[in-house]
Amino acid sequence: GVFAHLEMLEAQAHEAAVKQEETEQQEEKLARLKARVQELRLQRDELRAKVDLQQKGQLGKEGVVSDPAQPSARAVLEWKIKSVKAMLQVFYLTGISGKLTKRGVCFCISTAYEGTYLDSYYLDLLTKPEVQIHRHSVPSFIPLEQIAKKYLQTDIRRFLSVLSDHLNAYAGRRYQADQLQEHFSDQIEGTLQRNSLCNLLVFNYNVSSKSKTFLFNVRLLYGDLCCSLPTEVTISCAPDAPTSLAETAAAHSDLFRRVALHKAFRSFGSAEESMD
């Protein structure tokens, strides 16, 4: 009866986790759609600006037709400024804001996890004679140089988007580890080990079975640096542990892959309280 009750509680926890994940996915999808709408509007404005420039070039002075491929320098400058401002508005919806500077653009990338604001990082770009990074506050373990080499000169939107994904995923992983240490220290045995990038976490936690306490050793590997959920979960237990704990370890492993670390532990606690 106890195991059947445990299975029922695990099924309920699984269902709740799935619903939570679906809600978060819908919110992320809505944010992406909003950003896409703004991007399409930007493209529309750019096309309108190009048409306006061509029409002005064809009229010329006193009705004389001029070369449409050679718009005035002022018109080109106004169009560039308008395009940059529109681009900044697009990024604002995705947690990226920016302002024009005398030598280029300064961006601020804000990170958050599950609606909780975390940290902001700054990136000062020079635009002449070519786009280059002047200074920044991005942590050294984020592959900024690799991302810049791949996208900065060809697609600055993609560059900022990929960099934002890396920073948000890192902030999310670090936040989960902090929440685990802060709220579930009574279940953690020893110290939670993590590297600077927080893409490898190793820790031990206690699990009760038949009035005895056993230790689970966990290794979480985040192979995708743009993701805040682990791609590989390894849970091991002492050789003398009951066979039933192997099923518990499998259930925990599945939960770690699908929901935030601290939420997984919260569901473990709820299941134990219900059994008591």
From TrEMBL:
Task: Report whether Membrane shows up as a keyword of the record.
Answer: no
Sorted alphabetically, the keyword list is: Centromere, Chromosome, Coiled coil, Nucleus
Major place of localization?
nucleus
Domain of life of the native organism = Eukaryota
What does the UniProt entry say about where the protein is found?
A: Chromosome, Centromere; Nucleus
Query: Which protein family is it in?
Result: Belongs to the CENP-O/MCM21 family.
PANTHER family with a match to the protein in the record: CENTROMERE PROTEIN O, INNER KINETOCHORE SUBUNIT MAL2
Name this protein carries in UniProt: Centromere protein O
Species name for this entry? Answer: Balaeniceps rex (Shoebill)
